[in-house]
Amino acid sequence: MKPPAETCPPPVATERILFAFTPKEQALFLPGLRMEEFAEHPHAYIDTDAAGTAGWERILREWRPTVIVTAWSAKRLPPDWVASPEFSLKYVCHVTGSLKSLLTREPFLRGVRATNWGCSINHTIAEHAVLLTLALLRGAGGWPGAMEKGGWTVDQVRRLRTKALRGRSVGLHGFGAIAREIATMLAPFKPACIRSYSHGVPPAFMADRGVEPCASLEELYGASEVLICCESLTAENRGSVDARILGRLADDSVFVNVGRGQIVDEAALLAEAATGRLRIGLDVFHREPLPADYPLRTAPGVMLSPHIAGPTLETYPLCGGHAVENLRRYLAGEPLSGEVTLEAFDRMT
What is the band of 13 on the pLDDT scale with cuts at 50, 70, 90? Predict the structure, then answer.
């Protein structure tokens, strides 16, 4: 539905909903969306790609939405509109993850609420972390070469340096919802122990969930045969996994990163990768897409995935369903799921 032609901005007497995403995003995330379900509230739709920045800014000023339903293609809210007395927005219902392309801190300071896909894909990220861990332990990068040399032999096993997960000490760098999901998934593999460190997380919170808290990154990395980084990025922890911290990992340990690439010092990671000392699995990088000539692509013992730990193909509608349910909750005055606070927004990349 397109907004009605109006000669002046209407008064905001009720919730005014703007659905702002591309047809491709709707097909991917919201295949069953019926905008008429929300007919009791004035609502409009804009194809964010087709409208461009000028069309986006125009509809915000003319339509004066109090609610915006957005996805990846969302464009930044005009700063002068956000700062103006006519600013009408109260709630951003974001179908996907980071809100950095759409918002600054100012709307939060003006009382705007926001949600994203929350915990709806935690399990897919956790599964991918476990996948990389098992693949590295079993030497999956060397399987094609081993196949060319013939069938099973003890020498093949020696060359691949296969290991089991059972009995290993596992460290989780971070203890948010994804880390907790990883810990749950790892339990049936019967690791020797699962430890964690995350700045600001109370040790009792970890202990109550069967995870042994560590007092520092140094302790965590030094005690882990398998280390999975799933920490949120902050200004304080950017580059915190440096040469000294990586050096705490014993030879032939596993290091997996499904959190944020910028948490790891890139020069230190490249230096470690070049030696082949560690088994390294990465789904996130400093630069994406990763350049074709980037040294990580050919480093020994490194397994790379193209930042696909997030939604799997069939789980995209889960994210959309989560957003629509939040929209219903907001309109009904009920608690929201996956609400993004200003503190959480500051940690986003």
Answer: low
Q: Is 68 helix (H, G, I), strand (E, B) or coil?
A: strand
For residue 128, give the nearest of 169, 168, 185, 174 by alpha carbon. Answer: 185
Q: Which of 176, 225, 168 is nearest to 198 (CA)?
A: 176
Q: Could you tell me the residue range of the domain that residue 268 belongs to?
A: 122-304
Residue 206 lies in a domain: yes
The reply to whether 233 and 296 lie within a common domain is yes
Q: Would you tell me how many other CB atoms lie within 10 Å of the CB of residue 291?
A: 11
Known catalytic membership, residue 307: yes
Q: Cα–Cα distance between 220 and 246 in angstroms, integer? A: 11
- Round to whole Å and give the CA distance between 110 and 102: 15
CB within 8 Å of 29: residues ≥ 6 apart: 21, 71, 95, 96, 316, 317, 319, 320, 323
Q: Is 260 a catalytic residue?
A: yes
Q: Token digits for 188?
A: 């049936």
Backbone angles phi, psi at 71, to 5 degrees: -145, -155
Phi, psi (5° rounding) for residue 244?
Answer: -65, -45
Find the CATH number of the domain harbouring 224.
3.40.50.720
Task: Name the active-site residue from 43, 94, 173, 260.
Answer: 260
Nearest of 108, 114, 115 to residue 87 by alpha carbon: 108
* Number of neighbouring beta carbons within 10 Å of residue 50: 10
Read off the pLDDT of residues 175-195 as tens digits, 9 standing for 90 and up: 999 999 999 999 999 999 999
d(CA 273, CA 271): 5
pTM of the model: 0.86
56, 73 in Cβ contact below 8 A? no
Among the listed residues 58, 209, 307, 329, the single catalytic one is 307
